[in-house]
Amino acid sequence: MAFPGNPLGGATGGMSEQEQQTIRMMQSVMESCPAKVAMAGTAGFVMGGAFGLFMSSFEYAGPTMNEEMLKQSTKEQLRTAVKDMGTRSWSMAKNFAVVGAIYSGSECAIESYRAKNDLVNSAAAGCFTGGLLAVRAGPQATALGCIGFSAFSIVIDKVMHMNS
């Protein structure tokens, strides 16, 4: 990317050598695998928490409510619902963080090893992540996790790079 004042993109915009060196250092840190894993894990945690909060709110919105809960006072119902929403948000946040970190880390490692940025990296990282997440369920689940996550990764990568 060539931004005005970007030392890697051409014009220095009047920056000193020290400022240019600082920017190069910051860019190299942000492009490192540990930073990518941390960012993906953090983003996954935030998105998972929001998704968990959203999805748990539907449990109390229909006719399938628990009979025990209907016998409680409104204050107790609200306390129970908020506690459950927090529990689900926390659980989904952790799960999304793990998936994001595993995928990002494996994709970065594969990209570094291959020295290419293409769909093969996404497919391999998706296969690794899906297989790793399903490994406790046996070999068939591992293979299906690999195939499913790999296909999903390819589709998302294609959609994200349609206009590039």
Would you report the number of β strands? Answer: 0
- Give the helix proportion (percent range): over 70%
Order of helices and strands: HHHHHH
> How far apart are the first and last residues' alpha carbons, in Å?
13 Å
> Residue ranges: pLDDT <50 for 5 or more in a row?
none
Q: Strand-residue fraction?
A: under 5%
**DSSP summary: helix tally:** 6
Descriptive notes:
- The chain has 164 residues and is mostly helical.
- Helix content is 74%, strand content 0%.
- It has six helices and no strands.
- It has helices at residues 17-30, 33-57, 67-70, 74-114, 119-134, 139-160.
- Helix 2 (33-57) runs antiparallel to helix 4.
- It is extended, with a radius of gyration of 22 Å.
- The model has no long low-confidence stretch (mean pLDDT 86).
The gist of it:
This protein is mostly helical.
Key traits:
single chain, 164 residues, 0% strand, mainly alpha
Secondary-structure map with pairings?
Elements (H helix, E strand, L loop, with lengths): L16 H14 L2 H25 L9 H4 L3 H41 L4 H16 L4 H22 L4
Helix pairs in contact: 2-4, 4-5, 5-6
